[in-house]
Design goal:
By secondary structure, the chain is of the alpha+beta class. Helices cover about 30% and strands about 35% of the residues. The strands form six sheets. Strands 3, 4, 6, 7 and 8 form a five-stranded antiparallel β-sheet that branches. Helix 1 runs antiparallel to helix 2. The N terminus is likely disordered.
């Protein structure tokens, strides 16, 4: 009976003291209370460039605002997306960046919490809001910074876009506005990208990209879309430099250096990946990596790539570095090579020493070359004397025959024959002498 009588009493008191109702129900363990007093929000929207400033007011009294902690739950979702964003705020305002979205759905709820216990006192219903932006004719926008000072953006034009539109871009950075230097065109001469070089980026200042879609048939104001980038988040680094491979304590040690960057170059900012032939790619935070040297392939390629991960979130990996091979002439295991060559050399040296002792090769090599004997010297002197004597006889015979004119022709013929005979003998002697000298010289050179 006690329970039956308590409920009517509470209902009667609720007409005179509304706040007693909430405190009594809260004491019974019930939370997430709907506003019985008609707590509600009024949404307002302000459009500025590609931003929508969403604000709201409620009918809370000043006393309630001071007594309780007021928080707001905002949930919004862009058109043509499935991801729902939820935020818990204490301000009555939220800036939503449209980027390349054509609108969004949003809803707001107000909640009151007890300051001492953080228990919920009451909350309002959802207040919903829908914003439709002008049509967006581009999609898949992507921008990267590479080689420190090069900036490149690309996009696709939607199929439903009018035929007479053209896309123009510019960007604002550190208070300056830069027009596109060179457009990338498709087969229909539509701008689908922008290429810029020799730019100077401040890593902590955002790049505000402005994309304008204009109708070439009329001079009406075109549609503008805006998107902001932080330079370091879209930087594509060059591959790591000075990649080298060495052998250390039966491990393959790979060393490298980080590439230049527009932002922080501290070691902890970089995340590396090492790829060794067909092995699994390994994430490394240091500037070196050791790989156990068991039985690798005859020619094993090593490559490294890098991105920024710790200091700032960047999803763009660099290209892989040029492959460095482990088993080429620069990375051969010197100790193993030395042992492989040293053992055969020792064996061949011992075999050569044994053969020399067995067949007395040293005695043959060290035997002195004999000098020409006295008989050879005497024979050479006699040959020279004989040649001189024959020459004198030929001259005397020639003078005798010249004195008789009637035998002139016959003597001349005999003289020619005699000279040819003597010259042949002299030539044979000379050739023999030269052959002996060459033989002796070669023997002396060999031994």
């Amino acid at each position: 009976m006690a329970c039956v009588t308590v409920i009517p009493v509470l209902l009667i008191l609720s007409f005179f003291q509304p706040k007693t109702l909430f405190s009594t129900i809260l004491a019974s363990g019930q939370q997430d209370i709907k506003d019985a007093l008609g707590l509600h929000n009024v949404l307002q929207m302000t459009k500025k460039d590609s931003r929508v400033i969403l604000s709201w007011n409620n009918n809370l009294t000043e006393e309630e605002t001071k007594k309780y902690t007021v928080k707001y739950i905002l949930i919004y979702k862009f058109f043509n997306t499935t991801k729902e964003r939820k935020e818990r705020l204490q301000e009555k305002e939220k800036i939503i960046h449209l980027k390349l979205h054509s609108g969004f759905n949003a809803k707001v709820k107000t909640q009151l919490f007890a300051k001492e216990t953080e228990d919920i006192i009451k909350e309002s219903d959802w207040t919903e809001f829908t914003y439709k932006a002008p049509p967006v004719y581009i999609q898949n926008l992507s921008c990267i910074i590479y080689n420190i000072s090069f900036f490149n953006c690309t996009w696709h034009i939607k199929a439903e876009a009018p035929e007479d539109i053209q896309i123009f871009t510019s960007y604002r950075h550190v208070g300056e506005v830069f027009a596109c230097q060179q457009y990338i065109k498709n087969a229909w001469k539509k701008n689908i990208g922008c290429y810029m070089k020799k730019m100077n980026f401040q890593p902590s200042r955002k790049i505000n990209l402005n994309i304008t879609v204009r109708n070439l048939r009329n001079s009406s104001r075109g549609l503008s879309y805006y998107k902001a980038f932080t330079p370091q988040t879209i930087e594509k680094l060059n591959p790591p430099i000075n990649v080298s491979v060495s052998l250390e304590n039966r491990n393959i040690k790979i060393d490298w250096k980080p590439p230049p960057t527009i932002g922080s170059a501290r070691k902890k900012c970089f995340l590396y990946q090492v790829k060794i032939a067909d092995q699994k790619i390994v994430n490394v935070t240091a500037e070196n990596y050791k790989y156990p040297f068991h039985k690798p392939a005859k020619k094993c390629a090593v490559q490294v790539r890098v991105k920024k991960e710790v200091c700032i979130a960047n999803k763009i990996w660099s290209e892989w570095s040029e492959p460095v091979f482990i088993h080429d002439e620069k990375t051969v295991d010197i100790l193993l090579l030395s042992l492989t060559l040293f053992c055969p050399l020792i064996f061949l040296g011992g075999l050569l020493i044994y053969a020399c002792r067995r067949y007395r090769c040293l005695e043959v090599i060290t035997t002195p070359v004999p000098h020409p004997s006295d008989n050879i010297k005497t024979w050479l002197a006699d040959e020279t004397h004989h040649e001189q004597h024959m020459s004198m006889q030929m001259e005397m015979h020639s003078e005798f025959t010249l004195g008789r004119p009637e035998e002139k022709d016959e003597n001349i013929q005999q003289q020619k024959c005699l000279k040819e005979f003597v010259l042949e003998d002299l030539q044979r002697c000379y050739n023999f002498f030269i052959s002996m000298q060459v033989y002796l010289s070669m023997r002396w050179t060999i031994f």
